[in-house]
Specification:
It is a single chain. Helix 11 packs across helix 12 and helix 12 crosses helix 14. The protein starts with 10 loop residues before the first strand and ends in a 5-residue tail after the last helix. The strands form 3 sheets. It has a 6-stranded mixed β-sheet with strand order 9-8-7-10-12-11, with helices on both faces. It has a 3-stranded antiparallel β-sheet with strand order 1-2-3, covered by helices on one side. The protein has a 3-stranded mixed β-sheet with strand order 4-6-5. 42% of the residues lie in helices and 14% in strands. It is an alpha/beta fold. The chain has 2 domains: 11-156, 2-Layer Sandwich (Nucleotidyltransferase, domain 5); 175-364, 2-Layer Sandwich (Nucleotidyltransferase, domain 5). The chain has helices at residues 43-55, 58-63, 86-94, 103-116, 136-139, 145-151, 160-174, 228-235, 240-249, 252-257, 263-271, 275-299, 309-314, 316-324, 335-340, 364-375, and strands spanning 11-15, 23-27, 32-36, 67-71, 82-83, 122-126, 183-188, 192-198, 201-205, 304-308, 347-348, 357-359. The radius of gyration is 21 Å and the shape is globular. The relative contact order is 0.11. The structure holds adenosine-5'-diphosphate. The site of adenosine-5'-diphosphate has 13 residues, from helix 11 and helix 13.
Amino acid sequence: MNAKTGETLLKGLAENLFLPTASLSYSNESTNEQYPLASQSDHTQALDAITQLLDKHPMLKTSLIAVGHRVVHGGESFSESVLIDDLVIDAIDKTSLMAPLHNPANLAGITTAQRAFPHLPHVAVFDTAFFQTLPKHAYMYGLPKRLYKEHSIRKYGFHGTSHYFVSHRAAKLLGKAIETCNLITAHLGNGCSISAIKNGKAIDTSLGFTPLEGLVMGTRSGDIDPSLPSYLIEHLNYTASDVTTMLNKASGLLGISGVSNDCRELEAQAACGDANAQLALDVFCYRLVKYIGSYMAITGPLDALVFTGGIGENSALIRNQVIKQLAHMGLALSESANNTIRFGKSGAINHPNSLPIFAIATNEEWVIAKDAYELAGASD
Ligand code: ADP
């Protein structure tokens, strides 16, 4: 990516890792190709394949000036992006217990990329960093304090890179300095989160110690009664691992509908009269409305509400269903803008009499590229 302009020069995706169907797809202006990786390929093998792929693009390869790595969990150690050294690697490793699915994979990516590009600076950009500004009263759970002091159990928040990007974009659209903006940003994809931003800084967010708390998501439950896991274990023969799998993989839109975790599919089924698909969408929107209302209480006078992520950027139906329930709080959509600002477009979708509401196409890769560029000392 060109870090100055955000232009994507080459884009790739390694999928189905650890499965026989592991594959790599990549595209640029002139190519769009997919080819199989060795069966059961892991992150290291996928990155090796990406490195070989770059050999086919020597001009691009020689123009690289830094490698940016998305790291899911930075714990309390990182409130901003950093150049990676042994201490940083150690800190990411220590945080792996809190993000066992992500941080070890991120570390495998870092070490493989460092091997492939030993001459380049490597930069870690943390999904949690944007939320290190949360005040203590927002990140502490109502639990014995020693769990925080001895085991770092607190709210961390995730998707920070996306919330950072869209909040800065919203400030631009408002024509205001970010430091003067009170915003609510809703990132609605397969994972969903919402953030309250006061004077440009995150003051609360819905994802918590893990990416399970908060909004209803594709397959994740979001908020539930904390007694439910022990009820399931004691009375319904679940094991702890059954509960974790159920809450992360079989709940949310998929669990309620029994149809799909995919919002497009649910919208289509609901339109054909499937009551369970409609119920899943209703629960999704209702939870979102509740969070928006509660965040309006804490941001102070709101400058804008922002939708992003696959659902937030594209689903005119979900945006409409949510905003209709917030009419009494000064929010209303322009029907035509809501139907137009989709599929990669960004802009205002509010009615002229409403507080500003934006749909903004997120670009986490650009934030990572910019931070890598700046920390590599390349910016002028
Ligand atoms: P991830 O969190 O995996 O990055 P995305 O941000 O791509 O996911 O969001 C995926 C979600 O966006 C899916 O539920 C998908 O159905 C939804 N989505 C994408 N396009 C549309 C659309 N046109 N209308 C409704 N939902 C959409």
